[in-house]
Amino acid sequence: MPFREINSKVVEAVLVPGRKVFSQRGAMLAYRGEVSFTPNIQGGRGGFASMIGRRVAGEAVPLMTVEGSGTVMFGHGGHHVQVIELSGDTLYVEADRLLAFDGTLRQGTMFMGSQGGVMGMVRGQVTGQGLFTTTLQGHGAVAVMAHGGVIELPVTPGREVHVDPQAYVAHHGEVRNKLSTAVGWRDMVGRGSGEAFQLELSGSGAVYVQASEEKL
Questions:
Q1: What is the pLDDT of residues 196-212, one digit of tens each?
Q2: Which residue in 119, 118, 101 sits closest to 40, CA to CA?
Q3: Under a CB-based contact definition with an 8 Å cutoff, are residues 91 and 84 in contact?
Q4: How many CA within 13 A on the CB side of residue 49?
Q5: How many CB atoms lie within 10 A of CB 103?
Q6: Greatest mean pLDDT range, 37-46, 71-80, 157-166, 189-198
Q7: Which residue, of 76, 153, 159, 166, is most buried by count of CB atoms within 10 Å of its CB?
Q8: Which tens digits make up the pLDDT trace of 34-67?
Q9: How far apart are CA 60 and CA 160, in angstroms?
């Protein structure tokens, strides 16, 4: 694992020659050793094509490539940080929540309308994901940011998990998700979107939920 949690808001990446880490620009706090930082316009492993749709929609987050030999500490905005380990599966997370991730992971962009049509796009707006969301696939670690800390809730077959869309951070595994109404349409008058909708997740994997309804 290239990331070690220093405290709830700072992680340290261990760099070795030939292995890259990608991070948000401006997230470096301190480093030791021979380390280089290079602006990245290709969106990590996966190439420029994976970022075209997001850039058109104005949802791209600039990254930097970090490589060399040494250790680097990352943190941003005083947000809580959660390290997520991937073992060949796919993590779905909004780009602005990514603090840093292993360069071995393949990054992609998924159009929210591809999962649920119009309701998928509505789900993107309610959760703050917009029209696109970022995918990271493979074996490696990801450091994501959240408000108030993060809890991991397992999703198992036959036991759905219902999440407040405003508290949703990310999910991974073979998980299906859909937006459902928590109250009747007549009862929605005067209610915020977080009270009117639920995000229902089913299948096999995990969902990460922050202890706040505040978006980054």
A1: 678 888 999 999 999 98
A2: 101
A3: yes
A4: 2
A5: 20
A6: 71-80
A7: 76
A8: 999 999 765 555 444 444 444 433 445 689 999 9
A9: 31
